[in-house]
Amino acid sequence: MKYLMGCSTIILIGSCHAFSSARSSFQHISKLTLQISPKIQTTTWRNRKKSCLQNRASNIPANEIDNNDKPEAKPQDSTDLDLTVPSVQRIIKFAIPAIGIYLCSPLLSTIDTSSVGLLCGTLQQAALNPAVTIIDYSARTMSFLYTGTTNIIASSKQKTNSEEIKDTFLGSLRLAFLVGVGLATILLLTSQKLLVPLIGNASIDVELLSAAWQYVAIRSLGMPAAAMIGTSQAACLGLEDNKTPFKIIVIAAVLNLVLDIALVGRKVPWLGGTAGAAWATTVSQYFALWLFLRQFSRATSGVNDEGLLSTRGLLSGRLNLKTFLRWPCKRTMESFRQYVIPVTTTQIGRCSTYIAMGHTVSSTLDTVSMAAQQIITSLFYTLIPVGDSCSLTAQSFLPSIVMQDASEERTKSVTKTMKNIYKVAGGLGIILSIIAASIPLACPLLTTDPAVTASVKSVVPIMLAILSTHGIFCASEGILLGFKDLKFLGRIYAVFFAVVPMLMLRLKYAARAGRHITLLSVWNVFLGYQTFRIVAFVSRVLMLRQRHAKEDICKAT
């Protein structure tokens, strides 16, 4: 127990040190970039701030001023607020805390993996491979809630009064709760039957199956909390508040760690082992949800000192049990409808690859490889949010620029914003490369089995190649979402859904034919998939930029 606590402390200290180092490095990069690049004028932001303060001074909310008293907007004003380009420094300050938006679930799963591996051994750790696959990938089908919430709030906050934004957010929370309950019900009814074909190995240990089912059943109870946490994080992001989600996720991770230490080592059925890890994660999720709701329901006006919407007190006086337990209004359903099919298709396309990987490993390789795969995927999902933050940043900053009327100013703003996002993505790729190269050093904190450690180390070069380019890929995907190029994303991931699993399954049949297949073989296929995605997405981004530039030139002439 003392060893585990010591290792856990090292993990937390190392994570904090890595975060501090990343932030310091990026601040240095941003200073160098800003010395080269011209400073971006933000006079309209100051004008808006001044206007809001004047309205507050006169005790008249900005959204209640009579239309006749409003000054007429200048058409084709090149200094419009929505055309303000976010600087590299501003993107860095936004992107680094935004890592926490996607970090919650994989971070909790990694803590579970480490605790189970150190306290329960290789067999129980191997059981987490199919169990976490079902839970984490099922949760990704709810991503349309998060993408929709971020885009709707980010796009409307400049054109919609604050009361409508609050109504939209409350409606999205209602919808998230219903979706979470529905997904939890589906998992409880079907996951036990899915485990056997997912593992695909008739000789698999009964104890492993039992441990996997216990983890899935308990984690399913946390799906409503997971859906509402993701929606809350997305709303914070849409309002450009990335500090609140980051703080809450850190608190939830620490609580999960403490509960893992207390529960995982117990020999009580449905309380120790993988079940204990699942209880620790589920309790942590509901505690994190309570912290979010507490932040939103504080008795404040929901407006910060600058007169802008704030997450603190955003739903003050609106969030109570009687009013919350209602069916979402028609407007809420219509707002999210456009995101359901494209975003869900995108996530299913992603998840099909990882599910096929897990199935291939479980059905073709041994228990040691299954445990190594669980460690690798846990680390992978803990690290990729560093790149995913670029996607969220693009979704937050681009929509308000892209939605403006066609003009040369819009072309310049879009181009500059994209360049700044890619600069940050490149820097994040360098940091991810350094972390990936350090994975062998973390192995003693994740397993005590030398064979598992050797298997993990064999995949490190592939992880290095994938993670070094992950920031560019995520930035491109976020830019496409910012352009609302949902059809392209839906179609290309539909192709991935069919092709990539087929390539993975070929390894299974090759192993049956007598060929030597290892964990490295599986990840080599994934590397090819990642390379193709980057080329396709970057090419599409360049094509969209060119299309918008032509449209702006035509409008100008």
Task: State the gist of this model.
With about 550 residues, the protein is mainly α. It contains 20 helices and no strands.
Structure write-up:
Helix content is 78%, strand content 0%. The chain is mainly α and 557 residues long. The longest helix has 38 residues, at 162-199. The radius of gyration is 24 Å and the shape is globular. The N and C termini lie far apart (73 Å). Mean pLDDT is 78; it is low at 1-81.
**Poorly predicted segments:** 1-81
Strand content: under 5%
Radius of gyration: 24 Å
Helix and strand sequence? HHHHHHHHHHHHHHHHHHHH
Helix content: over 70%
Q: What spatial form do the alpha-carbon principal axes imply?
A: globular
Features:
mainly alpha; 0% strand; 557 residues; 78% helix
Task: Provide the fold topology.
Blueprint: H1 2-36, H2 43-57, H3 88-119, H4 122-139, H5 143-156, H6 162-199, H7 206-220, H8 223-238, H9 243-263, H10 273-296, H11 321-324, H12 330-364, H13 367-397, H14 399-402, H15 408-437, H16 439-442, H17 450-458, H18 460-482, H19 486-512, H20 519-556
Helix pairs in contact: 1-3, 3-4, 3-8, 3-9, 3-10, 3-13, 3-15, 4-6, 4-7, 4-12, 4-13, 5-6, 5-8, 5-12, 5-13, 6-7, 6-8, 6-12, 7-10, 8-10, 9-10, 12-19, 12-20, 13-15, 13-17, 13-18, 15-18, 15-20, 18-20, 19-20
